[in-house]
Specification:
The complex is a heterodimer of chains A (about 120) and B (about 650).
Chain A lengths: L2 H17 L15 H10 L2 H5 L6 E2 L3 E2 L9 H9 L15 H13 L15
Antiparallel strand pairs in A: 1-2
Chain B lengths: L9 H9 E2 L1 H5 L24 H8 L8 E2 L3 H11 L4 E4 L6 H10 L6 E4 L3 H15 L4 E4 L1 H17 L5 E6 L10 H4 L15 E3 L4 H16 L6 E6 H5 L23 H13 L3 E5 L6 H14 L3 E3 L20 H4 L2 E5 L4 H4 L1 E3 L7 E3 L6 E6 L20 E4 L2 H15 L2 H29 L10 H12 L4 E3 L8 H5 L20 H13 L4 E7 H4 L5 H7 L4 E7 L4 H14 L19 H7 L3 E6 L5 H13 L3 E7 L4
Parallel strand pairs in B: 3-4, 3-5, 5-6, 6-8, 7-8, 9-10, 9-11, 11-14, 14-15, 16-17, 17-18, 18-20, 19-20
Antiparallel strand pairs in B: 1-2, 12-13
The chains are: A mainly alpha (about 120), B alpha/beta (about 650).
């Protein structure tokens, strides 16, 4: 399967998540989930396979968006998991409970987001 | 063709022409009649052998000579030399022993020089990587139907990648010449049939003159765009028998085909559409086939100040050129005119396809967008294998080699651009340059996430490597599935700094093809670096032995995520679809328990080995040591335990 076809196909998913940052999580209450348990579920249920263990993003059939410090609200985050746009697999409550999702959300919100590249000299070659 | 025991076979007829007569030598010892010697007295001691016994044990029978002064293999080597073929990559085999010996002794093991491989797949993949750097094919030889079947995946990759490779396969055409056993099971009536659906041409020459003409023809076909692999069966008799009359054989003259340019009027029409477009986009895949290709594409893009989305089948466009918008594919949806050059699977690039329960798709282009295609790929297709992709409607379809046609198109664009359009282009160029820079900065920011994590992020792996090779005359010749940080972060701008991917997505390409590319780079003194997945590595780790044996310098970074990770994700999607067992999808998709130690594997093949590296702080010093080993003239493997993507 053409990598570039896949990239093109999944691009909208990335755009959907990244675009959702405009609605933002700013001003929300801190996530109520259990970040430590969320990390366990994040790894066990294979979220890391596309989004990376650090929530740095990756690729499935196309770019899989950064989740560290996601600006999606919890409801949007859950909606994407339950009924995703494009190629992300849907996780039903048989696989992930709402509590698991809340815990994962707390985990990814706890992950450090991007730093300034200027702090890492070799990124400025 | 069956011949009777007493028939004058072709082999024996030919032998009569060039053999040093061992039978004649036997004639100096007259046969001894059975009754000529007196009966010896019986003795308990062994008697010395008599003349008859000596003759029987030491002299070959008449008409079975044991020496010859020439062989068809010598002529075959003479043909290869006229084609300036640098190497013959082989896994040695009796079915082409005649050619092999002639390459070494008649040809002096130069032009071609033997490259010893431990699998035919490695030999052909090396040729694919070599051709994409050097711009010309090398030759490979396979052992009859068994070796050719080993080579098929690599030949298919070369076919899909439109790369010229010249593959030979030993065979013994005449059934009555085959020894019992292996020569029968390794022979075929038509061994080219095995690869006919994914080669441009094949033949099974029945004479040396036929061989000469077929090889020159095959070479020419392979190197004519659209390029591709070709196959020639080598009859054992032709290779091994004496040449009846060398003077009667003629080596045909090779003259390369001048690649076809697109029709001038059609190119002018394309130029008009591009000049008048508000948001044109150039899409490209396998455009550059010589160092001029990239310069030609840059000239067109700059004339229009038009974004270029590069699918990276070749080194088409510099990664840091302000018009490189390859990571902004949404531009396709805004384009009113799209010029697609030498594209593979154009439909796939212009469509959103959804890998869901219902496999739906919708155009990525906006309604009314004009699509122009320029290329030769579709001029040569086969039926069975579906590498041509889905049908794509287009508005102007120009048959012509992309690289050769670009200067004509650029001239037409310049002529069609008035001052008003040039001003508009300049404004567009400024916006695109700003967007490109923002994309680069965004990539750098994303690269920082998980910077100190273990397993090591792929971004850090790529950044650490670039930091240490950036001042070398480097050539990047391999990557793993979905690993594109190099194109996001590195300044890739010279024609040999990238050479594309496998073509057929056949796993096992990356390591041997990278070593083939490194073989080409070696003569130019370039520093070769490649990344490759761990799953890919395990298909043909023996390629490293070839690199060590032939002193081929290459820094090979194993992107070790301990899985066939793309499949791991696909399987997870299947389980999620069913609402079951997502946490069990490592079964059959991962490479752990035990973990594979690639550095040790590399050392076992004679390469320098570093790793497994799990702490990112250990990566830089390991790379420094590995680079020193590469500069000393050999291969080095760095096993980096990474996050999946």
């Amino acid at each position: 399967m053409s990598t570039f076809r896949l990239v093109a196909a999944a691009g909208l998913f990335a755009a959907a998540l990244l675009g959702a940052t405009s609605v933002g999580a700013q001003g929300q209450d801190p996530p109520a989930g259990d970040a430590a348990h969320g990390r366990v579920v994040f790894l066990k249920e294979a979220c890391f396979t596309c989004h990376g263990r650090s929530g740095q993003g990756g690729a499935y059939n196309g770019p899989a968006p950064v989740l560290a410090q996601t600006a999606l609200p919890l409801e949007g985050f859950r909606a994407q998991i339950r009924n995703p746009v494009n190629d992300m697999p849907a996780y039903s409550d048989a696989v992930l409970s709402d509590k698991d999702i809340a815990d994962i959300y707390a985990f990814v919100r706890s992950l450090p987001g991007p730093r300034s590249p200027k702090d890492i000299p070799i990124l400025n070659n | 063709m069956s011949k009777g025991r007493n028939a004058s076979s072709r082999r024996n007829f030919l032998k009569s022409a060039g053999l040093v007569g061992a039978a004649a030598a036997t004639a100096v010892t007259p046969p001894v009649a059975a009754d000529a010697a007196p009966a010896a007295p019986l003795s308990k001691k062994a008697l010395p052998p008599g003349p008859r016994q000596i003759a029987a044990e030491t002299m070959p029978p008449a008409n079975d000579p044991v020496n010859q002064s020439s062989s068809g293999g010598d002529f075959m080597v003479d043909v290869l030399k006229t084609l300036d073929i640098d190497y013959l990559a082989i896994n040695c085999a009796s079915s082409y022993r005649g050619l092999h010996e002639a390459v070494v002794n008649h040809g002096g093991n130069t032009k071609p020089e033997i490259i010893t491989c431990v699998h035919e797949d490695i030999a052909v993949h090396m040729g694919q990587g070599y051709a994409k750097i050097e711009g010309k094919p090398i030759a490979m030889a396979c052992h009859g139907v068994v070796g050719l079947q080993h080579a098929t995946m690599a030949i298919y990759n070369a076919w899909c990648d439109r790369v010229p490779v010249l593959v030979f396969g030993g065979n013994i055409m005449e059934a009555d010449k085959r020894a019992p056993g292996a020569e029968w099971v390794h022979a075929g009536v038509d061994i080219g049939q095995i690869v006919r659906e994914f080669t441009k041409w094949d033949d099974q020459p029945a004479s040396l003159q036929h061989f000469g003409e077929s090889v020159v023809r095959a070479y020419k076909i392979a190197c004519t765009p659209p390029m591709g692999p070709v196959f020639i069966a080598l009859d054992g008799e032709l290779q091994e028998n004496p040449i009846p009359d060398r003077k009667a054989l003629r080596i045909p003259k090779y003259e390369p085909v001048i690649p076809p340019q697109g029709d001038a009027a059609a190119l002018a029409e394309a130029a008009k559409l591009l000049v008048n477009a508000q948001n044109p986009v150039i899409l490209c895949d396998r455009v550059a086939r010589t160092p001029e290709g990239m310069a030609n594409l840059v000239a067109l893009a700059e004339a229009l100040q038009c974004p270029v989305i590069d699918n990276r089948g070749r080194m088409n466009f510099p990664s840091r050129h302000p018009l490189n918008q390859s990571f902004r594919r949404a531009l396709i949806g805004q384009a009113d005119v799209i010029l697609a050059i030498e594209m593979n699977d154009l439909w796939g690039s212009l469509t959103h396809f959804h890998d869901r329960i219902v496999r739906a798709s919708n155009p990525a282009t906006k309604p009314g967008a004009k699509i122009i295609t320029l290329g030769v790929r579709d001029l040569y297709l086969k039926s069975n294998y579906q590498d041509f992709g889905r049908w794509q409607d287009v508005d102007l379809d120009i048959a012509g080699d992309g690289e050769a046609s670009l200067p004509v198109l650029t001239d037409a664009v310049l002529r069609a651009s008035d001052a008003g359009r040039k001003a508009a282009f300049a404004e567009r160029g400024k916006k695109l340059a700003a967007a490109h820079q923002a994309t680069v900065e965004h990539a750098k920011g994303e690269a920082t996430i998980g910077w100190d994590a273990s397993p090591i992020t792929t971004a850090r792996m790529c950044a650490e490597v670039y930091n240490q090779i950036k001042d070398e005359d480097w050539s990047l010749v391999g990557t793993a599935i979905q690993l594109n940080w190099m194109h996001r972060l590195w300044d890739i701008k010279k024609p040999y700094q990238w050479n594309g991917v496998s073509g057929g997505s056949g796993v096992g390409y990356n390591l041997p093809a990278s070593i083939g590319a490194a073989l080409a780079n070696k003569k130019h003194g370039r520093f070769t670096v490649a990344f490759g997945g761990d799953g890919d590595f395990m298909f043909s780790p023996g390629a490293l032995w070839t690199a060590a044996h032939h002193n081929i310098p290459i820094l090979y970074i194993v992107h070790n995520n301990r899985a066939y990770h793309q499949e791991y994700m696909y399987l997870t999607a299947m389980a999620a679809r069913h609402g079951r067992g997502v946490d069990r999808m490592d079964i059959g998709t991962t490479l752990k328990e035990p973990n594979i130690d690639y550095a040790t594997v590399g050392r076992g093949m004679g390469a320098h080995g570093e790793g497994p590296i799990t702490d990112p702080k250990d990566l830089a010093p390991a790379l420094t040591r590995a680079i020193a080993a590469v500069k000393a003239g050999g291969p080095a493997v760095v096993d980096v335990v990474t996050d999946p993507r």
